[in-house]
Amino acid sequence: MTSTNLVSTSFLYLVALLIILISGIFGGALARIYTIEFQKRGLPHMHLLIFLHASARITTPAHVDQIVSAEFPDPTTCPILFQTILSTMTHGPCSAKCMVNGKCSKGFPKEFQESTTMDESGYPKYRRRNDGKSYEHHGHHF
Predict the structure, then answer these.
(1) For 30-39, b where at least 16 C-beta lie within 10 A, e where not — what string?
(2) How far is 117 from 95, CA to CA, in rounded Å?
(3) Nearest Cα to 69, choosing from 112, 24, 128?
(4) How confident is the model at residue 4 (pLDDT cuts 50, 70, 90)?
(5) 51-110 residue pLDDT tens
(6) How far is it, in rounded angstroms, from Cα 41 to Cα 36?
């Protein structure tokens, strides 16, 4: 088996596990649709849309906070998670690819926010409390 086949096969197992986990976490889904794409170097990634039962829908900021965190974990109590998030889930420093009129087209850096809020369409703005801490990665401070 080639390394590409191994990666693709492993990815499909992870997709199946993810769908099972998500269905369990959210109490089942009415429907799901996904597509798997392959990047330039042959690595797969997935776009997934899940339609939840009305009873499982995320409708309050408190419910969002139970599922999503947009804050860094404590580097002393969760060092592996902290390093993973810092190295793979942060945006910056911006390059010419994402800059439009001198600003990041992705809206970074995000403003601090003491609590999660949801707009009229249900889109959340995640809690990002200002705890005074700053972290550096590739010369950029978060």
Answers:
(1) eeeeeeeeee
(2) 30
(3) 128
(4) low
(5) 888 888 888 999 999 888 999 999 999 999 989 988 888 877 677 778 888 788 888 888
(6) 14
Task: Quote the CA–CA distance of 89 and 2 in Å, as a whole number.
Answer: 29
Instruction: State the pTM of this model.
Output: 0.69
CA 106 to chain centre: 14
**Type of residue found at 84:** T
Q: Is 29 helix (H, G, I), strand (E, B) or coil?
A: strand
Q: Measuring CA to CA, how many Å separate 87 from each of 44, 91, 92, 97, 119? A: 20, 10, 11, 19, 30
Answer whether 56's CB lies under 8 Å from 26's CB: yes
The pair of structure tokens assigned to 32 is 């799901």
How many other β-carbons are positioned within 10 Å of the β-carbon of residue 85? 19
Q: What is the pLDDT of residues 6-21, one digit of tens each?
A: 777 888 888 888 878 8
> Using an 8 Å Cβ cutoff, are 112 and 105 in contact?
no
